[in-house]
Write a structure and sequence with these properties.
The chain crosses the membrane at residues 64-82, 94-113, 125-143. By secondary structure, this protein is mostly helical. 71% of the residues lie in helices and 4% in strands. The protein contains 6 helices and 2 strands; from the N terminus they run ααβαααβα.
Length: 157
């Protein structure tokens, strides 16, 4: 639990202190998108197929922090520094760098309690290695869509 609490504090402080790009509306959208996507994915991988879990294989109160306040600030940090105006190679390298960083964090979260809180069933870090870039790409696409909707709403006024 110590590892999760420290992570939540560090990620949230960094995300909100360094944010120079995201509006309050965009933060709310990214936060809710992240929570919804994580829940949809985990309903199957975690609860139905027991691929991985937080703390215990059951639904418990300890895991609520992992589902609500751990990953959204990471996505905020990711978007804050994402090279939207960069070339495709720069964007790909950025996504790859973040994917590796998140994978390394996942390995640390596998440490025994009280530092670790994440457990593998049949899931391995290889799945994360291939899935994380897709998830980051989805966050970028969702953010672009929110920006387009905001722009359209502003021009209608």
């Amino acid at each position: 639990m110590i590892g999760l609490i420290l992570s939540v504090l560090i990620f949230n402080i960094l995300a909100f202190k360094t944010n120079k790009r995201l509006t309050a509306n965009q933060i709310v959208h990214i936060w809710m998108f992240t929570i919804a996507a994580q829940h949809i994915f985990d309903v199957f991988i975690n609860f139905k197929f027991h691929g991985y879990w937080y703390f215990t294989q059951e639904t418990d109160w300890q895991g609520i922090f992992a589902y609500t306040v751990l990953i959204p600030p990471v996505n905020m940090l990711f978007l804050t520094y994402y090279p939207f105006a960069g070339k495709l190679t720069k964007k790909a390298a950025y996504i790859l760098l973040w994917s590796v960083a998140v994978l390394l964090y996942e390995v640390v979260a596998l440490l025994p309690a009280p530092w670790g809180y994440f457990h593998y069933g049949w899931w391995t870090w290889w799945y994360s290695l291939f899935l994380n870039p897709l998830l980051f790409w989805m966050v970028v696409q969702y953010y672009r869509w929110v920006c387009k909707i905001e722009k359209r709403a502003i021009t209608k006024k």
